[in-house]
Amino acid sequence: MTVLKTSLRNFFAHKGRMILSGIAVLLSVAFVCGTLVFTDTMDHTFDKLFNDSAADVTISAKEIDDAQDNGKVATVPVTLLEKAKRIEGVKAAYLDVSSDKITVVDSDNDNIGPTSGAPTVGVNWQESDRNPLELSSGRLAKGPGEAVLDKDTADKKDVEIGDTLKVIAIPGTFEVKVTGIASFTATNPGATLVIFDTPTAQAKLLGSTKETVEVDLDAAAGVSNDELKKNVLAALGSDYDVKTQSETADDAADDLGSFFDFMKYAMLAFALVSVIVGIFLIVNTFSMLVTQRTREIGLLRAVGASRKQVNRSVLVEAVLLGVVGSLLGIASGIGLAVGLMKLMGKAGMHLSTSDLTIKVSTPLIGLVLGVVVTVLAAYLPARRAGKVSPMAALRDAGTPADGKSGKVRAALGLLITGVGGAGLVLATTEDDGGVAGQYLGLGILLTLIGFIVIGPLLASVVVRVLGFLGLRVFGAVGRMAERNALRNPRRTGATAAALMIGLALVSGLAVVSSSMVASATDELDKSVGADFIVGSDMGQPLAPQVTQAVVAAKGKLDHITNFRSVNAKVTTPGGKDEKGTLEATDPTYMQDVRTKAVAGDLATVYNTVNTVSVPEGFAEDNELKVGDKLTVAFVEGKTATLRIAAITADDTMLSHGARFISTATMERNLPEDKRPLAEIMLASAKDGQEDQAYTVLKQNLEEYPQVKVRDQADYKKVLEDQVGQLLNLVYGLLGLAIVVAILGVVNTLALSVVERTREIGLIRAIGMSRLQTRRMIRLESVVISLFGAILGLGLGLAWGIAAQKLMELGGLKVLEIPWATIAYVFVGSAVVGLLAAVIPAYRAGRMNVLNAIATD
């Protein structure tokens, strides 16, 4: 009981210090719990939507693995409807028509579909009770010239009843008048829905009123879904895919599951970074509190307290901090999840707070995480407190550092750093990508740990250099700031380590992303001879209308090249099977993309039938050479024997790992209705007509806003923007770790000021002004922050360079170091130091001189 009282007294006696450490716990737990609540809510919301909207039993076409992307939707004959109605146990049957192979534009030719990655879907109006839509205004569509639009899209894109929309579908382009607005009765998954009457949906989306996508069945009373499925299979045989409501819902959830999992684990990874950074803050807090209470702890030992009791007292304080910080973090995490839901709403995915899902495991995870992390961080300071001898009560404060342990730590840190550095070097020299990746991961982990362990040794060197270069100009104040930063190298190292981690990740990612963009642009300059690239930003294949519009500009063009991906199973002479794609191109592809052949002749591949090129790595792995033959089973087509006519180099990015065939080979082995649509089209202008060709292409494709025409400069800009958007997201998430690191600097300075109260009073008494005192604290903060920045940037550069060397195996051959970003980060670290010192410097300057001198 005495231990608990002592812990409570000490906990509340240092509220300010505990609040700063508590914020680190709060932020870490909040991010973890917020991620779990947000992703669990999305899972629950979509599970509910899929279960509520799925029919009791669904009949659809047999799924074909890796079917060719010919833009068409798999269908079943309409005659199934009448057959289904006669099956025992069927209460009602409906035709279900849908297609996400469409683009919808308004009268200004602007795409009204979502930009968040969700699809634009054309559907027929369902009379079933499971219809997730209800008409909120206007009337239902009747006939081929009418449609209903979902309310979320109508509100966002300012579409009203009576407006005209143009629908670009694979079978053709057509216009509709909006006759009604429909609202979702459940969560809007973020898609744009255009609803037609059933015959129109069949004719315009599928190209035939004799086909439908699915036949949905409602079970009669007393008939289970499983029983109805058995009846359907008995009546129709195994020619169709028959699924129950739960199976349909599970399939739909699985399609989204990989995206949700990626989002969850990516966010949790950044939360882990903030947890690691927070550990340093907590360690520093308890280390300094133990140091400040050395006399008190010595007195407790003198009056009979055991080491275990002193140790337990510190750990109880850590538990209290962990519990309070975790509880606040759990509440903040729920708020964060609600904020993310509102943010998703602005992107078009409306998640209702009524569906907020907080599993029992989520607060438990948050509480356990916060308490365990805090106790682990406080363990070493607690052990140090337990070792304080009763004689320490006779000293002013603090305990002498253990020189032997410092040397052991330095030696261990140098060893770990050296092994980690060797791992990074091996990652740059290894030719096997998998092995190189393992070396890189090991090198990153060990160099990070090594720098953390060796931090005090580095502090004694780097801080002196920084002091010589930047602090000496401030005279005695600068020298005192340098001395204060060097007074406890272990503390300075731990404080800087928190900032080091965040900046190492930022600078490492900056090097990787800059190298990716530089490599891509270099590859474009060296390898791409085409003047123009036509493609969809949404990754959709090009509709026939689009390819016709490109062909219509051939008067200004020298040639046009189609690029298609054909799904197939490839069998080597050794009997090894591999599913993948073959890239089907026209003969002019060799003019548009300069691909290096290490053996054979690529022109033969592009111009002849039943020949193929394979990449160098594939050839080596399977001991293939020019003249060998592959057995290729084209999905939905023939099985053919293709002769290897060329082997392509792997030291490229654009066609790394690609296997090429000619368009003629594709046409011979795939029926016309199964041939994939072009993914991109490459075009080159006639000599001297580049500007005119560019203008004509843009004009011809103006009515297809889902498709972009880009010259090489445009394409480079797109690459930069895409990488930039990804980096901005990463920087924003890593900002959390940097915020925690700033708190660490504030905490260290605040505790340092308290620790040096008497010293500050004495130097004030002999003539130092308030302004000089504040400047001394600010300079100390700046030098600690710059020390952390140097370590972080140095680590990040090493990581980024090693990662780029690894990426060379995939064709990313240009190393680009973003020196401007590095400089901004370095200067920003100095600003961080100034901001972190505001409150501690203010308190030091306001300190009463006589009271400070009288402090024990």
Explain the overall architecture.
This protein is an alpha+beta fold. It folds into five domains: 1-56 and 245-399, no CATH class; 63-238, no CATH class; 406-453, no CATH class; 459-529 and 711-856, no CATH class; 541-705, no CATH class. Helix content is 57%, strand content 16%. The strands form four sheets. Strands 15, 16, 17, 18, 19, 20, 21, 22, 23 and 24 form a ten-stranded mixed beta sheet that branches. Strands 4, 5, 6, 7, 8, 9, 10 and 11 form an eight-stranded mixed beta sheet that branches. Strands 3-13-1-14 form a four-stranded antiparallel beta sheet.
What coarse outline follows from CA principal-axis ratios?
Answer: globular
State the oligomer: single chain
How many distinct helices? Answer: 27
Name the beta content range.
Answer: 15-25%
Mean of pLDDT: 84
Number of strands: 24
Helicity, as a percent range: 55-70%
Overall tally of domains: 5
- Give the C-alpha Rg: 34 Å
Sequence stretches where pLDDT stays below 50 over 5 or more residues: 396-402
User: Span between N and C termini?
Assistant: 29 Å
Main sheet: strands, sense, barrel: 10 strands, mixed
Which structural class do the helices and strands define?
alpha+beta
